[in-house]
Design goal:
By secondary structure, this protein is mainly β. It contains four helices and 21 strands. A hairpin with a 3-residue loop joins strand 4 (78-90) and strand 5.
Length: 275
């Protein structure tokens, strides 16, 4: 499949070489700083663009500003990431992409995960609160791309997909059985939370312990922001709920019934939505 059709950014960029003098070009670090950070296609809900992320940063090694386009492709028990990197120059309202770049990573069989950037010029503008960025390329298809800043509060559509109770595989021991549940929810202040509920069974006895932590949710990642632990005890019977700081990449099944978490160096964990 042509990566230009998959990646909205690629269709925005012009390959025609344009003389810098036509634009009255002037690079200024203060303009680039406002772009720095991670951006995600807005609004979510498009399976072709949701896995695509954009990032602007300053490379201290090369001394150049860079634009990075990534695509995350879930493949069974892992996520394949393709990353295209290009140096850029930024003026007051224009981004000059200096070099075309592409990356292709194998997934399954002959399929690949692709990301690409095309050299050219982009006009850009910010929303009033600087949390949305619009890239414009007259004549492109589409001719603009709206991005939301990655550090912003969770987009409602993302939370709606994750909020609720998820059942983890039970842990069976010789003396005790532990069933864990994760509950994603949000507060009145729009702070996303994760509650872990541990139900421990020992013979005919049972204990329930739970603990809460702040989390940050994006299209591709769940970040647990603080460690927390709590235990309930009756005699030598102890039931503990514990959450550690962690960053999980995740994928949801098309039906939204299963949630699979991925972390470096660990086996994927599949949770099932509880009605």
């Amino acid at each position: 499949m042509n990566s230009a059709k998959l990646l909205g950014l690629s269709s925005l960029l012009v390959s025609t070489v344009v003389s810098l003098s036509l634009f009255g070009w002037s690079q200024d670090a203060t303009y680039a700083q406002k772009l720095y950070g991670k951006w995600y296609t807005y609004p979510p809900g498009n399976p072709s663009t949701d896995p695509v992320g954009h990032q602007f940063l300053h490379n201290s090694v090369t001394g150049r500003d860079e634009m990075i386009v990534t695509r995350h492709c879930p493949v069974e028990s892992r996520i394949v990431v393709a990353k295209a990197v290009s140096p850029i120059e930024v003026s007051e309202d224009t981004i000059r992409v200096l070099k075309s770049a592409s990356d292709s990573q194998p997934t399954q069989g002959s399929s690949v995960c692709e990301a690409s950037v095309t050299a050219g010029f982009l006009s850009y503008s910010f929303s009033d609160e600087d949390d949305h960025l619009v890239l414009t390329n007259p004549g492109g298809n589409p001719d603009f791309l709206e991005l939301a800043r990655g550090e912003q509060k969770t987009l409602p559509e993302i939370g709606q997909r994750l909020y609720g109770t998820w059942l983890l595989p039970a842990v069976e021991g010789k003396a005790m059985r532990v069933q864990l549940r994760w509950v994603f929810y949000t507060t009145a202040e729009h702070q996303d939370k994760l509650r872990q509920i541990a139900v421990c069974t020992k013979g005919n006895d049972s204990l329930v312990s739970h603990v809460d932590s702040d989390v940050s949710l994006s299209r591709e990642e769940i970040k647990v922001l603080q460690s927390a632990s709590h235990q309930e005890q009756e005699g030598d019977f102890i039931c503990q709920a514990s959450i550690a700081t962690e960053a999980w990449r995740y994928s949801l099944s098309p039906t939204g019934v299963t949630l699979t978490l991925y972390a470096a160096g660990a086996k994927p964990i599949t949770l099932t939505r509880e009605p």
